[in-house]
């Protein structure tokens, strides 16, 4: 967080919560005391099997051991997500958004493209495929390579395959994104959607 910005100590949504801490002994004791007080009053228990902590890669091993000792949580080194949004340190990378790409690919895999007309494919692209990454785009800004990859997958689905080879793309995705009145099919450019959310 910016030094002049608000000092956020936790994020809570439904039964998911992320707690930010310095990792010092006193801070950890206060957090665990608060959680135990909540368990005692509400009767709800924290699921320690699903609870974990996340550290910077340069953090000392003693810090990791101290947090594990006082919390009893697991140290998770892999990427974690909160409300389906990836949480990462540093600049966003393609690997951080691989889940959304896999989700688009898996959705297409379940369909039968040969049985669909171009009009049917347009409907599926507009109302299904382009809605999958909306939540991610509204919360974070993925790398431009990720956005291009998602659009490429949609374009390949639209034009189809023949003998395990991509069919020729007779128009660019940018031209297809124009409205019907301007010669396009009205699909959205993911770059424009991402930029619109940034302005919002």
What does this structure look like?
The protein has eight helices and eight strands, in the order E-E-H-E-H-E-E-E-H-H-H-H-E-E-H-H. With 200 residues, it is of the alpha+beta class. The protein has a two-stranded antiparallel sheet. A two-stranded parallel ribbon has the order 3-4. A hairpin with a 2-residue loop joins strand 1 (10-13) and strand 2 (16-19). It is elongated, with a radius of gyration of 22 Å.
Q: Give the uncertain stretches in residue-range form.
A: none
Structural category is alpha+beta
> What is the total tally of β strands?
8
Label the overall shape: elongated
Overall average pLDDT: 86
- Tell me the fraction of residues in β-strands, as a range: 5-15%
Assign a percent range to the helix content. Answer: 40-55%
Q: Order the strands across the largest sheet as they lie in space.
A: 1-2
Radius of gyration: 22 Å
Structure described in brief:
Helix content is 44%, strand content 11%. The chain has 200 residues and is of the alpha+beta class.
């Amino acid at each position: 967080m910016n030094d002049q910005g608000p000092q956020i100590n936790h994020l809570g949504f439904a039964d998911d919560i992320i707690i930010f801490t310095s990792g010092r002994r006193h801070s950890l004791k206060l957090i665990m005391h608060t959680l135990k007080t909540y368990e005692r009053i509400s009767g709800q228990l924290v699921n320690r099997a699903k609870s974990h902590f996340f550290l910077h890669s340069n953090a000392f091993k003693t810090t990791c051991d101290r947090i594990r000792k006082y919390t009893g949580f697991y140290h998770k080194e892999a990427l974690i997500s909160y409300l389906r949004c990836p949480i990462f340190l540093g600049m966003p990378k393609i690997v951080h958004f691989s889940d959304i790409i896999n989700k688009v690919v898996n959705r297409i895999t379940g369909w039968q493209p040969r049985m669909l007309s171009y009009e049917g494919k347009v409907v599926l692209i507009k109302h299904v495929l382009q809605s999958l990454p909306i939540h991610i785009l509204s919360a974070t800004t993925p790398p431009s390579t990720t956005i291009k990859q998602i659009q490429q997958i949609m374009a390949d689905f639209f034009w189809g395959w023949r003998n395990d080879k991509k069919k020729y793309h007779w128009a660019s995705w940018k031209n297809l994104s124009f409205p019907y009145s301007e010669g396009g099919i009205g699909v959205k450019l993911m770059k424009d959607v991402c930029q619109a959310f940034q302005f919002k």
